[in-house]
Amino acid sequence: MQRFPMAVHRLNRWMMILAIWSFACQVSSAPITARMASFSDKSHAFFYELLTESFRLRGDELQIISAVDVPQTRINLMLESGKLDMHWFLPSEARRPPS
Fold first, then answer.
1. What are phi and psi of 67, to 5 degrees?
2. Residue 72 has what pLDDT?
3. Cα-based distances in Å from 82 to 69, 71, 72
4. In this predicted structure, what is the pLDDT of residue 90?
5. 86 Cβ contact list (under 8 Å, min separation 6)
6. pLDDT per position as a tens digit, 50-67
7. Which residues contact 79 (CB under 8 A, 6 or more apart)?
8. Which helix (H) or strand (E) holds 58?
């Protein structure tokens, strides 16, 4: 009869360890960092909010590090060299290929 209380004690101890580990995993999850361009006219705000909200709905936190007022021509170079992680490009007359 002595073994049953000992098994319950071990089970309780493992459940406590799992609960603490589970809590620690949730608390210690570091935010995801992204380096992106931003502009004085706030034209980036929609894309920042879209990304931030998308990550939040997934249960992740997105921390954006801004490179302020980077010229459009330099953004490609910064993406290729790894100085920026992502950017959005919208078509314009200057970027449209000839038809």
1. -105, 110
2. 87
3. 17, 16, 16
4. 77
5. 34, 36, 79
6. 989 988 888 888 999 999
7. 86, 87
8. helix 45-58
The residue assigned the tokens 């007359």 is 93
User: pLDDT at position 35, please?
Assistant: 95
Dist. CA 2–CA 17, nearest whole Å: 23
Residue type, 69: D
Q: How does pLDDT run across 20-33, given as a tens digit for each residue?
A: 656 555 554 678 89
Task: Measure the CA–CA gap between 67 and 61, rounded to whole angstroms.
Answer: 19
pTM confidence score: 0.62
Q: How far apart are CA 81 and CA 77, in angstroms?
A: 6
Q: Which two tokens stand for residue 74?
A: 């330099």
The values of phi and psi at residue 79, to 5°, are -65, -45
Total residue length of the chain: 99
Rg of the chain on CA atoms, in Å? 24
Amino acid symbol at 22: S
